[in-house]
Amino acid sequence: MIALGKDTYSLGKISYDLVEEMCRVLEDFVQIMKTYRVKDYRAYATSAMREAHNNQIILEQIRVRTGLDVRIISNSEQRFISYKAIAAKAVEFNKIIQKGTAIIDVGFGSAQLSLFDKDALVTTQNLPLGTLRIRSLLSRIPATVRDHREQIEEIVDNELFTFRKMYLKDREISHLIGIGENILFLVRRMDRAVLGDKIDAVTMRRFYDRLCQMTTDQIEERFGVNSEYASLLLPSAVVYKRILELTGAEMFWVPGIRLCDGIAAEYGDDNKLVKFAHNFENDILAASRNIAKRYKCHNSHNQVLEQYALNIFDSMRKFHGLGPRERLMLQIAVLLHACGKFISIKNSNECSYNIIMSTEIIGLSHLEREIIANVVRYNIRDFDYDKVQLETQLHPYSDSGVSRSSITILIAKLTAILRLANSMDRSHRGKLVDCKMAVRENELVITTGYQGDMALEAASFGQKADFFEEIFGVRPELRQKRKV
């Protein structure tokens, strides 16, 4: 175990000595993989690397010295793959999330709190409550164990105040699911033979009180960890205990999940080696719908727009060459296209862009979120191929075919579909809900039996048709059936 975050959270970058040590460890991994004739691997970096200013240099050092292609994953991807590993324990997981449930993952850089209600993901929030981060904050304050415990509680309560106000007001949480390295070390010394992997709130509090009486040396001896790790167990215990009290949960489930289990679950899912009963796409959409609700988006308009946009996407399959993941991104763009009106009606597209870029959507990578944000931005703004904003560093040695130009083209395709769908509900009255779509002789023919006035939709449709034709080479035509 190497405390990479120790440098990142205090200095903003990872020191050369730590890079040296990390490369030596990774070289050992490479040798082990060669011994076992491993055909495939995944190497992920998380918050310590993500927040380091020199991360691109370090990734290049690792690639040159070990041959490993390490990918920095976003926080939402990291939490999502851990969540997949929990869902692999399908029977228990599906039973528990029927009641109000929170998943809490206290890492070294941050803590993630995700809320479920009746099988649907309500929200997920990243809080700066990682154990290394808290420890580095308190390292400058000389204090006793008791003083430090009280200071950690103050830090945690401060961060949880807003979360409680926004998301826990009328919500009842019966179960907590604890994942990650920290909770595994904490429960290792409980009587697991008696308790199993479910611990009630009273037992957790008793254990916490005993831990708070220990010095770092005593923790080191009792838990069988080095001094570096022993000093991290108290901050993690405080975070778990305060969240237990805040939610009022009666039971704590520790399924024994680490990030590596999540990577294995994701690999199994991607390669169809594992079949999950839980629908993860629904969780991404449920989280997006909750964001739309928070920013007072027009729900009935969104429902109609979703129908139009997905029908256009499905009708144009032969012409856009996109897959299920791009269809999901289009759906999320539809749900969030007007969230910026909550802040400014005049500059809603720019505000929508900023809201999406600032809001974590579990299961989406940072790049996918950028694509959605740009689609929403260009929904009501001239598309400029040279000025599409991308913060994500695209890996120069990736063989996935992802380049800046391919991302720009994808944004243009999804924007063209969103614009055309939006024009079809210009009045927000769902006039074309009965419409049929078909591609005939390089025309996307949209036919409706609506007999009322469609002048507003027809005018808007004509304006958006040019860009759609420019992108796909197919001219959209809106036709109204006349009754004889």
Quick tags:
484 residues; alpha/beta; Nucleotidyltransferase, domain 5; Hypothetical protein af1432; 3 domains; six-stranded mixed sheet; 11 strands; 55% helix
What does the overall shape look like?
globular
- CATH architectural designation of the largest domain: Orthogonal Bundle
Tell me the number of structural domains.
3
Largest sheet: 6 strands, mixed
Number of separate strands: 11
Task: Kindly describe this structure.
The chain has 484 residues and is α/β, with parallel strands linked by helices. The chain folds into three domains: 5-72, ATPase, nucleotide binding domain (Nucleotidyltransferase, domain 5); 75-270, Exopolyphosphatase. Domain 2 (Nucleotidyltransferase, domain 5), CATH 3.30.420; 280-480, Hypothetical protein af1432 (Orthogonal Bundle), CATH 1.10.3210.10. It has 22 helices and eleven strands. The chain has helices at residues 5-11, 16-35, 47-50, 55-66, 75-87, 90-96, 131-138, 145-167, 181-187, 192-195, 201-212, 216-223, 227-247, 259-270, 280-294, 299-315, 317-320, 324-336, 348-358, 366-377, 404-423, 455-472; strands at residues 43-45, 70-72, 101-106, 111-117, 120-127, 175-179, 198-200, 251-253, 436-440, 443-448, 475-480. The strands form three sheets. Strands 5-4-3-6-8-7 form a six-stranded mixed sheet, with helices on both faces. Strands 9-10-11 form a three-stranded mixed sheet. Helix 22 (455-472) links the parallel strand 10 and strand 11. Helix 11 runs antiparallel to helix 13 and helix 19 packs antiparallel against helix 20. The longest helix is centred in the first third of the chain and has 23 residues, at 145-167. The radius of gyration is 25 Å and the shape is globular. 38% of the residues are buried. The model is unreliable at 395-399 (pLDDT under 50).
